[in-house]
Amino acid sequence: MELLIAIVIGALFSAGIYLLLSRTLLRILLGVSLTTHGVLLLLLAMGKLNAGAAPLLHARAAAAYADPLPQALILTAIVIGFGITAFLIVLCYRAYQVLGSDDTELCRGAENE
């Protein structure tokens, strides 16, 4: 199961980086989203979540607990990812309104005007 999750994380990162290196703003937005999902899955895999175990440490069962820190990090990363995605959507929409295209080469040419 861990091998499958590692393969999925690698696929998300590789697809996200590939889309981040493209010229259109919409693909860059999708690349950021895929990379964010890869990070979330990586944090979940690093947390070693025990199915059926409470996320609290009990004195009697010290070995059977799930660490709550990765879960808190994932919740924080979801909120940050949502904020970045909302900002990039507005940025892409405004760039499309001004330039009439979502090509990043046109954004580079708009600096001189």
Report on the structure:
It contains four helices and no strands. Helix 1 (2-20) runs antiparallel to helix 2. The mean pLDDT is 83. 5% of the residues are buried. It has helices spanning 2-20, 25-46, 68-99, 104-109. The chain is mostly helical. The chain has a single domain (2-51, 62-109), classed as Orthogonal Bundle (Helix Hairpins). The radius of gyration is 19 Å and the shape is elongated.
What attributes does this structure have?
113 residues; mainly alpha; Helix Hairpins; 4 helices
Q: Which bin fits the share of residues in helices?
A: 55-70%
Number of β-strand runs:
0
From the alpha-carbon coordinates, what is the Rg to the nearest angstrom? 19 Å
The biggest sheet amounts to: none
How many discrete domains?
1
Mean pLDDT score:
83
CATH class: Mainly Alpha
Q: Any idea what the shape is? A: elongated
The CATH topology corresponds to: Helix Hairpins
Tally the helices. Answer: 4
How widely separated are the two ends? Answer: 54 Å
What would you say the CATH architecture is?
Answer: Orthogonal Bundle
Strand content: under 5%
Which structural class should the secondary elements be placed in?
Answer: mainly alpha
Written as H for each helix and E for each strand, in order along the chain, the element string is HHHH
- Low-pLDDT stretches are none
